[in-house]
Design brief:
Number of domains: 1
Strand content: under 5%
Strand order of the largest sheet: 1-2
Shape: globular
Structural class: mainly alpha
Radius of gyration: 20 Å
Largest sheet: 2 strands, antiparallel
Distance between the termini: 73 Å
Helix content: over 70%
Number of strands: 2
């Protein structure tokens, strides 16, 4: 069993009774709080999106604000798929569960916040291309969908997804962590694998619009299915095939990538 106590934490993989205790049940209060946080982030994201509908690129936001909005989006989209790991992790903690799970989630979200920096750069490039070089923006749309499709079918994707789908294996690894920052480090480690697993899906937001709520819901559903459903890996590969199909379709149907397709000017009567 992996047992992280309130002080330094220790690992004991041989405790079969303890492991059974960890495996028993899914819902813990802390996992429920993670899901509540995700629900709150969805509400806030929808409210923000109302004022940004149809906006491309960085939506006029500076780097700091963009990263903050990006982190809010990732909180909404990614935390539901983290709940199983958070639930099992909470069962190994003897005291201060809520505080330590909060540190775990903070470490996880820190990784996605850091990913918001290159996302800002790519969004800014997309906005510039859309306004100044629509032909190049069209090529970028094809490239975004194609990159997602190819990565979804890659071995690296499979490796990262396997880690995300094996919370017990992760717990055995996290049992060796020491010090006050161990929970945040565990969250960051999990977040790094999650980023490796899902970046190809998230980059689609650049093509369809960063604050495209329909796309966010669809991508969040794919992530959740990939990580928790029995046939998740197959579903992920199906999503890759769909992305490749979109890469072909967007050549003739540029409106499929509204984030990289400038709307035609309205005719004034």
């Amino acid at each position: 069993m992996v047992r992280l106590n309130g002080s330094a934490g220790s690992a004991d993989p041989s405790g079969s009774a303890g492991m059974a205790q960890v495996q028993a049940g899914f819902v813990t209060r802390e996992a429920g709080l993670v899901l509540i946080a995700a629900a709150g982030a969805w509400v806030a994201t929808v409210v923000l999106a109302r004022g940004m509908a149809g906006m491309t690129g960085t939506m006029g936001l500076g780097l700091v604000v963009f990263v903050a909005v990006w982190t809010l989006m990732m909180t909404a989209m990614m935390l539901p798929s983290v709940a199983p790991t958070a639930s099992l992790y909470a069962k190994t903690i003897q005291s201060n569960r809520t505080v330590r799970i909060a540190a775990l989630v903070a470490g996880y979200l820190a990784v996605w916040a850091a990913a918001g920096v290159p996302a800002f750069g790519l969004a800014r490039l997309a906005g510039w291309m859309t306004g100044k070089h629509p032909g190049a923006a069209h090529v970028l749309a094809v490239a975004v969908f194609a990159a997602c499709g190819v990565y979804q079918l890659s071995r690296l994707k499979d490796r990262c997804l396997a880690h995300c789908r094996s919370p017990l294996a992760l717990l055995l690894h996290y049992g060796s962590y020491r010090g006050r920052s161990r929970d945040a480090r565990a969250g960051a480690h999990n977040g790094a694998y999650c980023l490796g697993c899902c970046w190809g899906l998230m980059v689609i937001l650049i093509a369809v619009g960063v604050m495209n709520i329909a796309a966010m819901i669809g991508l969040a559903a794919v992530v959740l299915i990939e990580k928790t459903w029995r046939w998740g890996p197959a579903a992920g590969r199906a999503a890759g095939v769909a992305a490749l199909a979109l890469a072909l379709a967007v050549i003739w149907l540029p409106w499929l990538a509204p984030g990289l397709h400038a709307a035609p000017p309205m005719m004034m009567g």
